Amino acid sequence: MHVSRDFSHYVRTAGEGVQHIDLAVEGVHCAGCMAKIERGLSAIPDVTLARVNLTDRRVALEWKAGTLDPARFIDRLEELGYKAYPYETESAEATEVAESRFLLRCLGIAAFATMNVMMLSIPVWSGNVSDMLPEQRDFFHWLSALIALPAAAYAGQPFFRSAWRALSARTTNMDVPISIGVTLALGMSVVETINHAEHAYFDAAIMLLTFLLVGRFLDQNMRRRTRAVAGNLAALKAETAAKFVGPGEISQVPVAAIYPGDIVLLRPGERCAVDGTVIEGRSEIDQSLITGETLYVTAEQGTPVYAGSMNISGSLRVRVSAASEATLLAEITRLLDNALQARSRYMRLADRASRLYAPVVHATALITILGWVIAGAGWHDAIVTGVAVLIITCPCALGLAIPTVQTVASGAMFKAGVLLNSGDAIERLAEADHVIFDKTGTLTLPDLEVMNAADIPADVFELAGRLALSSHHPVAAAVAQASDATSPIVGAIEEAGQGVRAVVDGIEIRLGRPSFCGAETLVSDVTNLDPEASVVAFSKGSERFILSVRQGLRPDAQAVIAALKARNIGIEILSGDREPAVIAAAHALSISEWRAGVTPADKIARIEVLKQRGMKVLMVGDGMNDAPSLAAAHVSMSPISAAHLSQATADLVFLGRPLAPVVAAIDASRKALRLMRQNLWLAIGYNVLAVPVAISGVVTPLIAAAAMSGSSILVMLNSLRARGASREIV
Predict the structure, then answer these.
(1) SS3 sequence, 535-599?
(2) Domain 416-445+554-666, CATH number (from 3.40.50.740, 3.40.50.1000, 3.40.640.10, 3.40.50.2300)
(3) Residue 602's pLDDT band (cuts 50, 70, 90)
(4) 602: annotated active-site residue
(5) Which of 440, 486, 656, 712 could form a disulfide with 215 if both were Cys (CB 3.0 to 4.6 A apart)?
(6) Has residue 548 got a pLDDT over 90?
(7) 446-553 CATH choice from 3.40.1110.10, 3.40.50.720, 2.120.10.30, 3.30.499.10
(8) String of DSSP letters for 614-625
(9) What is the spatial distance between Cα 293 and Cα 296, in angstroms, rounded to a whole number?
(10) Which run of H or E residues covers position 449?
(11) Is the pLDDT assigned to residue 644 strictly greater than 70?
């Protein structure tokens, strides 16, 4: 009976004419597996993307809409030797926990067997073995076999299963030489014991498995810690919200049933399920995991709130601006996925090396055996040497050299408030020696502030704020927020391009352009004191007031610029803003190189000039007009508040109000690049030294197992040093 498979529930639209599905794939352990899967799936016609995330063993697939059945991907993965099924977070986590426990059991059994077999091996390997009675020697060997064989059969399952799937698919992976080496060592030991030989290698085989399992367990737990960051974000998502379906009626509905313009109720202790703006109520909200703000934020009329934020005290009515996959939280989650799936230049190099390594290892071992036989050695000694070569040349260290650093570094950078959006961003950012900042929204905060609020009488400012609530202009929103106004003035009229007016107690009040309020003569008094400020006027009868409104510098901008200078990084400002505003920012930050009124073409031209001088430019900008220069720079960053086009163009995105993540990202990338290079040299240097020694026949399988496993563990421990990214500026 034919059973149909319908995976349409797991397919989503990724763009115009493009469909997407995530599949969980079992048995992915190394860079070689990643490369094989991506090549195999990319070869299917109409597939536009096949990217493996080694951290959670997930493959992201995109294809031209309507051309392929997702079941074909699962069949293709089975042909490649991997079991796959649609990815679901809860089932993936359960599978991961079960696999981790299984690995721990295997490690416990292997370690226990290793200790006991090594104890039994001491009498055999110490002293003059030939002086021992054959019966004594055979007894120790058979006792070792009784412990090692069942232990290896169980503890070796993670490697044996993976190798069998690969061989069944007529391909190889790094578990194939491991399995062959262990099997040959055990098989030879049994033969040696039956023939009453002096030496057996049960200790080498079980020790090899122990070391390998330690490495695999450490690798898996390291990835789980990094993936926990994504899990924390997923936990912030609320599945339902209290939606107003009538004047006084609310209904608890799924997030998928909420659309922009709807109004939802956010009660104390609830997580917000949508992005929106508070229209009624007052409370405190915790949005630290979304925007990077560590302190509670006062939420009141006009305050933006984001999905994943926790409401602490009062109830809020929120008008929805984005829901489901359009929220800021969803955007951050997608960027984090990009970070965990990113493929660097060094990782691609390791991929190619690992892909060639398995056949090279097998060929080297076979040539060693034949070479020793041709040289006059017996088959026994030749095979022992071949097994040692097979074990010592296993490419585990090389396969772990780059992915482990990439995984640890991307997790550390996320904790510092930085998300990768490009595979080789770490290497390119580490090379940056000159930073160009846009001013508006980058060095300054995206929100406007009223700078002279203290100079305006409190009752007048409160009235201006109430009038501002009737306007949609961002400057008016800044006035409303600064005044703490909560109730708009009834009957207010907004005149497009001019301002808003109303009548209160028989007196006309106006807020808007100075000409609209009859306050042109007062403008110069404010602009002379603050040249970079924009002005908005307020009139009440015959009284006239000028409000100074501008974007404030990010709170740590001065410390960040000083930190960059301390790292010998050149700094300049390129801004399309007015010259007085740019001069004020440059002076406040002690930046001597600046240009005002520049166009996108001017920014690109400046970047090209710096490139010709041999500089590696980091462009940090947020506006739509920054997108071309972000793409032209050697590497680029944008704040999470940036326009979507800029985010799509930027190689890295940073969260929150502080600018500190820029320095943290540079420090983390430089450290990660050093560790990548160190790991590559460790892996290559180990093989350069170990292979000739193994071929010469002076290395036993036991020593080969310890050396190979030790190199892998050393690479992983070195990779863990990439965890040191921080938001703090040193």
Answers:
(1) EEEEEECCEEEEEEEEEEECCCHHHHHHHHHHCCCEEEEECCCCHHHHHHHHHHHCCCCEECCCC
(2) 3.40.50.1000
(3) confident
(4) no
(5) 712
(6) no
(7) 3.40.1110.10
(8) T--EEEE--SGG
(9) 8
(10) strand 444-450
(11) no
For 318, list phi and psi in degrees, rounded to 5: -125, 130
Give pLDDT, residue 45. Answer: 86
CA–CA distance, 175 with 520 (Å, rounded to integer): 79
Position 436 pLDDT exceeds 90: yes
Please state, as a whole number, how many other Cβ atoms lie within 10 Å of the Cβ of residue 269.
Answer: 9
CA distances from 279 to 318, 470, 473 (A): 6, 12, 16
449-484 pLDDT per residue, tens: 787 888 888 888 888 888 888 876 767 777 887 887
Tokens coding 444 = 């300054």
Domain boundaries, the chain: 8-87, 94-230+342-406+674-723, 237-333, 416-445+554-666, 446-553
- The whole-chain average pLDDT of the chain stands at 77
Token couple for 695: 């071929």
**Rounded to whole angstroms, how far apart are CA atoms 546 and 452?**
9
Radius of gyration of the chain (CA): 32
pLDDT at residue 122, as a whole number: 57
CA–CA gap between residue 121 and residue 701 (Å, rounded): 14
Q: What are phi and psi of 309, to 5 degrees?
A: -70, 145
Catalytic residue among 175, 262, 438, 626: 438
pLDDT category of residue 339 using cuts at 50, 70 and 90: very low
Predicted TM-score of the model (pTM): 0.61
CATH T-level fold of 8-87: Alpha-Beta Plaits (3.30.70)
Q: In Å, how far are 195, 557, 653 from 661, measured between CA atoms?
A: 66, 11, 9
Per-position DSSP letters for 678-694, written without gaps between them: HHHHHHHHHHHHHHHHH
Q: Length of the chain in residues, anyone?
A: 730
Look at residue 504 in the predicted model and tell me its pLDDT: 87
Pairwise CA distance, residues 434 & 571, whole Å: 6
For residue 698, what are its two tokens? 């002076």
* Reported confidence tier of residue 569, pLDDT bands at 50, 70, 90: very high
**Is 643 in a helix, a strand, or coil?**
coil
Structure tokens at 9: 């529930």
* Dihedral over alpha carbons 385, 386, 391, 392 (to 10 degrees): 60
Structure tokens at 489: 């003035």
